[in-house]
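Hi V.,

You were right to ask for the full record rather than a summary. Here it is.
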Amino acid sequence: MNLNEPSYENLEYIIEELAKQLQVLNASILKPEDYDLDHYHDIKDIYDMLNAQGQVSVAEINAIIAELKKYRKQ
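Predicted structure:
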């Protein structure tokens, strides 16, 4: 799987992994079908940053979730 290529399969994988890493309890916050490929690279940047950083604070988790909300379909 090449995550550098925008595809719905890759987007779904990234969103699901973000939900796990951010320990999102309410799965409806991060449903892959709520996002489209227009923001794929923005979402992947968040995914890459989170993987590079490792652990994040509660404040950072809230900020990341707020950022992801900006990329949801209207």
